[in-house]
């Protein structure tokens, strides 16, 4: 059995590989990556553990190494909008590291997760040294803006069924485990989370899920979803940007 020290060492190796492949950061020099990682720490998060709270100061740039995080915004009345799931290799805290302001989303561990924390002062120091790190941040922000614009457009132009099908295809691509012709989404997906993610009523999402299940496209069991016909599920969202 690996000791905690050995596990952390293995996670640092994995973190380096992920950071070197991250959008924009793949153009940074090895010395810049070394400098970012030198004072970075590995942290483990329990399920539902809060990583960042909206509006709070941000003292680090975070990259997910293993697991899955939820990014959301909650109202004062307790209503929540789930914006996205953060997957291994994705970064949190880009905007605060650029403008020095507070965190823009709540970020919570959806399942037990491992993150790399790079101190914000280290990031700012390296951005002053290496112009490619400026470009890395610009690429990250541009990519996020495109996804945001696409999401807004999808909400106005496409039906809930199409958007649900697209989301399930994306989950297959990120968390899918293939068993023959079927795919199991290896992520617990309560209907309340899907409703938050799609900005729809839970009952409406339930109706669309049942429609896909009745059509033989998916199978639902205790907050887990199996995709039985990935090709047909892609066809449901063929008018959208829906998988390769």
Automatic annotation (TrEMBL):
Alphabetically ordered keywords of this record: DNA-binding, Transcription, Transcription regulation
Family matches, as PROSITE patterns: HTH_CRP_2
InterPro entries xref list: cNMP-bd_dom, cNMP-bd_dom_sf, Env_Response_Regulators, HTH_CRP, RmlC-like_jellyroll, WH-like_DNA-bd_sf, WH_DNA-bd_sf
Pfam families hit by this protein: cNMP_binding, HTH_Crp_2
SMART domains (alphabetical): HTH_CRP
Domain HTH crp-type stretches: 158-231
Matches recorded under CDD domains: CAP_ED
Listed transmembrane segments: none
Name of the protein described by the UniProt record: Crp/Fnr family transcriptional regulator
